[in-house]
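Side project, low priority. Logging it here so it doesn't get lost.
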Amino acid sequence: MPFKNGEVPYSVVSVVLASGTDSNGYWEFRCTPAFAARWASAKREAERRFGRTIHIRAGWNIYRPLFSQRTARTNACKQGNCNGAAVEGTSSHGGEWRGRPCLAVDVDPNGLTWDQVDQAMEAAGFSARLITEAMSGIKGGERWHYIDFNAFAPLPAGSTSSDTPSPAVAEEEEDMFTIYRRGGSIRVVGNGRDFRIGGALTVQTGVDGTETLDVLAKGAKVVDLDDRQWDVMMVVLDATAGKPVTSLDDTVITKLVDGIVAKLPAAGGAATPGDVRAAVADAFGGLVLKAERP
């Protein structure tokens, strides 16, 4: 494959199974058509064998561009285990690993054992248990990490168009949500929807009305935020209306930056764009604005 790790063109990893926003900023489940078909097969295998589906962990957890690899490594080091994430430009999520073309996926087992997930994933053509404890420093290794060494090959034999979503359409992981939580304040976003929680995590009041949805059963990721992170995240969600930061026009970017500045503690004098970027990066651990996104 002629592409460098973390620099695969989006025209190649053209299928977007889902997208969302977490404490690291905007993310996508971006992959090739062959990978998407193989993942669909793995989900069917899990349901057929064990009666439960499997999910993908929220984040850049299929194809991972360089900027996201950098963030993952920084976060791992902050947690005291740099080996918990690959050095930038070497991740198996980046389109290549140890000289072999591939894509990787981080799986949420949704109540299944890892041995059961291994069976479903291996039946679909994924390789399991390659990131060992010795490599990662994580007890038992990264059991959630599966690699597809045929991600850039033609579609698997027997695959049909129904196995592969149209490019840049988020549909396969339509049940993925992220729960942002600060004390008793909760906001749920995902799949183009945005809910404020009232009471239990099963009832939300949506922007356009009231809807009941059991988000916990949908494999939602919970992100706990402190007061400062919550304030900034609410501004980001309100200003972007669920759109990726890279797609926003200058007016919305200005609204986003102004809103963040208003929420940040006063530091004396006018905040420069660099000050804002540094403050947001500190609050989130690496949100990147439009001008800096590859």
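Brief comment: The domain at 15-163 is CATH 3.30.1380 (Muramoyl-pentapeptide Carboxypeptidase; domain 2).
Revisit when time allows.
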